[in-house]
Amino acid sequence: MKTLLFRLAGVVIAVAIFCTLMRAADKPAASAPESTPKPAPSWVKIIDQGANDARLKGYKTPEGVKVEIVAENPVVVNPTGMTFADDGTPYVLVRDAIKTLSDAKGKAVYDTSKVVLETEKASGVLLHDHWLYVAEGDTVRRYKQSKGEGAYDVKEVVAHGFGGRKECQASGMTIGLDGRLYFTAGLGDNIVKGSDGSRAAVLRSGAVFRCRPDGSQLETYAIGFVNPFGKPAFDASGNLFQADNAPTFGGEFAGCRLMHVPEGADYGWRLKAGARSEADHVCVGAVGEMPSMLNMGSGSATGLLIYNDTRFPENYRGLVFRPDAASNTLHAYKVQPKGATFEVAEEFDFLKSDDPLFQPYQAVAGPDGAIYVVDRHSKLDADKPAGDGEHGRIYRLTWAGTKDQPALPPRGMDSAAKIAKLDDDDLIKALLAGDVGDQPRLEL
Fold first, then answer.
1. Are 147 and 125 a contacting pair, CB within 8 Å?
2. Which end of the chain is more exposed for a tag (fewer CB within 10 A), N or C?
């Protein structure tokens, strides 16, 4: 009898503990506080770009940076993504189409556009090895021209099964230094299948996935994100960095997080157990399961750029750039090693405007070494998620020089194509010279 009582007491205690854990699981985790802003570098002196172009009055950058509007409406309308071909041709994601841009008048301005692919719900675009990769809702596809020109009439599914909310499905794509394709997906049940049947399942969470460029050998790289909308970025040593958008609901940390993402990392976010991602957005979990480098508070994050080129001075190289459409700013961060990870040491606004239409969605390093900023140029409007259908801009930022740091003129837009044609000896010389832009990546 006494043994039975002990057993019953043990069961009661176990049930009580279980219920306590369940109540804790349903309760939002403690809010992650916004990080203390980091200081700006001492060398940053902010100027207004309006002196060179009246359209840029109120657009501010560090001294020495030159801003040019190289495309606008009607050539581009509400653009949200951009990538470059080896010959320097820009491919721009505008609403539900991908366009190529050209400079028909020879005035260093893109004045002509051509639709090369119509898409639905596209949220990311990337050119790699003559394939045009497009993130479209629950699927990543790639397209190719069967004749080397003309229509993109060859279509392949790279991966599909992204189960996040409409605005949290597959989005940012990039090629890593290992030759793999990396892409992100937002909060939900992501049960993803690659082209060879390989699978990766991440339930109730956003994630970074990777695979070979053809979609084979699909695997999960990191989990615990909310909406890592926009592409990951790699530094020159192959370290991956990602920005994440947290929700404004659920009682937990709301805003953006900037993180160094090692393989296998878990950043703690989960959709509430039993919730439907379309109907119940409450997120629970251990915020900071892996700590972020910076909790940035309110804003938006649409991908990162790490500048690994040489057409800006040394103090700009290796900086992490984050477009923030909500604050009308392209932020810049200097990161430095901290143990096995990194920390943000300094931060400043690389391009900021008091123009309410300025909505930077992506920053891209061009083959000429310039930084191109894709501006949807539309007021934030929940009823018009694709933009107002009336505005749009692309800016080119170059180094015009200061008293202490001379100008660094851009390379030719076809520099990547020229590098690809070099023989082994000349390629080695170009690499040793340290001015080849995006260096060729190994296809493993």
1. no
2. N
Q: In b/e form, how buried is each residue of 158-194, taking b as 16+ CB within 10 angstroms?
A: bbbbbbbbeebbbbbbbbbbeebbbbbbbbbbbebbb
318-324-328 Cα angle (round to 5):
120
CB 270 within 8 A of CB 207: no
Q: Pull the structure tokens for residue 307.
A: 């500048």
Cα–Cα distance between 232 and 174 in angstroms, integer? 7
Q: How many CB atoms within 10 Å of residue 272? A: 18
d(CA 26, CA 22): 6
Element (H, E) at 433: helix 424-433
- The answer to whether 183 touches 171, Cβ cutoff 8 Å, is yes
Q: Which two tokens stand for residue 82?
A: 């951009």
Residues 6+ apart with CB under 8 A from 219: 198, 200, 209, 210, 211
Q: What is the dihedral of CA 76, 78, 80, 81, to 10 degrees?
A: -10
3-state per-residue secondary structure call for 163-218: CECHHHCCCCEEECCCCCEEEEECCECEEEEECCCCEEEECCCEEEEEECCCCCCC
C-alpha span between 269 and 253 (Å, rounded)? 10
